[in-house]
Specification:
mainly alpha, 3 domains, 19 helices
């Protein structure tokens, strides 16, 4: 089958081909901007470049109106002025490839841990059969890892975001690097350092903090000391890693004993220390350089941000209708934040405590955060697309079901884009229709999340 042959190509070939495609799109973007009234380059890229110009002139990047990012972005974009205007886009494309490599490594590592936990089948009693089984597992691991890499590299959304000049590939890199250090290298202090950097760079990774903390709990399900001999053993809550047989009990996360999981162990302390050290060091340095405006534009603004223009968010029409109301009751903010907060906490405990579902916990939390956010644009979908390939091998869904969900997701976006087009380019009042499609898009995202949870299987008895 052509698709299988394509996926099974050496991953270096995929990296090379995808780099050529990205560079071609960057070149096309330069041409498109010169001949078209609708630019290919993202408006944020111009904001980055202008902020870099201020830095080059020994000024604050926040003197550029609407610059609400880490000063690190402006520093990285200085070569846009000194070398070439497309430097930043090329940098984002290269980081895209690094992201893909990290995805492949993480998938291979988690698969090896999975096979180590499952153990050898009972019928493998000869050396030859064990060797065949090991070879089969290695082939399966390479194919699955390559598939995850391909899903990221050739995704139209990731291609467009990086080549248009959006910096989210860097934010994604920090998240993936944290997962890599946690799962592949077991370097928890370094993981904390990178996690603190990722929170500074882009605020959204802060929602993963509890999940990472729970992952290192000694009460974690399927702890590394827990091994399968003849079959998958029962999940245990014992801190010493021993397995005890017990009767099935009602599945719930609301248990008093779960409070014990918050008591830190040495690994968790190292993670927290690294995170606090890097995050507060960066905040202190840039506060010294740029003052309160840095704190407000980089962090505080995003907690109070409102976008009365059209976007995918379920809440945009509410913000549009209440834009001129000064005194809005606290109940509105509570109703907006509470559902998201509850789901994030539930997923942190439900999946963070399972050594084989850390990646899925991050995926589920990202979908919740993006779907329930008060402002939602296309670039946020990259956060989901970066983590989804890590979990594909654990989502036991048929190809037909997967295709159906993809079609539903794109159809919901297309239905939203139609009234948005008439508003943006023809000036017609289609706000109500946009909101109706935003509700439909919200429902589509929640339905997809429900299906992913339904078909997610962290551990199966047969490989």
């Amino acid at each position: 089958m052509a698709w299988r042959k394509f996926v099974s190509l050496d991953y270096k070939v995929h990296l090379l081909v995808s780099l050529v495609v990205r560079l071609a799109l960057v070149a096309y973007g330069v041409y498109h901007d010169q001949v078209s009234s609708v630019p290919y380059t993202d408006i944020d890229y111009k904001v980055f470049t202008d902020a870099a110009r201020h830095v080059l002139d020994h000024k604050s990047p926040f003197e550029r109106h609407t610059y609400r990012y880490s000063p690190l972005v402006a520093y990285l974009m200085i070569p846009n002025i000194t070398l070439h205007s497309s430097f930043g886009k090329i940098l984002f494309c290269i980081i895209d490839l690094i992201d893909a490599t990290l995805i492949r490594i993480i998938v291979k590592t988690t698969l090896h841990e999975y096979f180590k936990y499952v153990g050898e089948p009972q019928n493998c009693i000869t050396g030859r059969s064990r060797k065949k089984t090991k070879t089969k597992k290695n082939d399966q691991t390479d194919t699955t890892a390559n598939l995850s890499l391909v899903v990221w590299l050739y995704n139209p959304l990731t291609l467009a975001i990086a080549t248009r000049g959006n910096c989210d590939s860097i934010a994604v890199f920090f998240v993936l690097a944290t997962l890599y250090l946690l799962q592949c290298r077991k370097q928890y202090f370094a993981a904390g350092l990178i996690h603190g950097l990722s929170i500074h760079f882009r605020l959204y990774p802060i929602v993963y903090s509890l999940t990472f903390y729970m992952y290192l709990s000694k009460f974690s399900f399927y702890s590394l000391e827990d091994r399968r001999k003849s079959h998958l053993r029962e999940i245990t809550g014992a801190s010493d890693g021993r397995v005890a047989t017990r009767k099935p009990e009602r599945k719930t996360i609301f248990k008093r004993k779960y409070l014990l999981y918050l008591v830190p162990n040495f690994d968790q302390i190292r993670l927290v220390q690294g995170c606090i050290l890097s995050l507060f060091s960066l905040i202190g340095i840039f506060y010294f350089l740029y003052g309160y405006k840095f704190v407000y534009e980089t962090y505080l603004y995003h907690f109070t941000r409102k976008d009365t223009r059209h976007n995918f968010s379920l809440y945009f029409y509410l913000q549009y209708l209440t834009a001129w109301i000064k005194n809005i009751g606290i109940w509105q903010k509570v109703l907006v934040v509470l559902p998201q907060l509850v789901l994030l906490l539930v997923f942190s405990f439900r999946y963070g405590l399972n050594r084989f579902s850390l990646n899925f916990s991050v995926l589920a939390q990202t979908i919740v955060m993006v779907t329930y956010n008060s402002v939602l644009t296309s670039q946020y979908f990259v956060w989901i697309m970066a983590v989804l390939p890590l979990c594909l091998w654990q989502i036991r869904m048929s190809v037909n079901n997967a295709i159906f969900l993809v079609v539903v997701w794109f159809a919901a976006q297309g239905a939203w884009l139609l009234p948005a087009y008439f508003l943006e380019f023809h000036g017609q009042n289609t706000f109500l229709f946009i909101w109706i499609q935003s509700v439909s898009f919200f429902c589509a995202n929640i339905a997809i999340l429900g299906r992913l949870i339904m078909f997610f299987a962290p551990v199966k008895k047969e490989v």
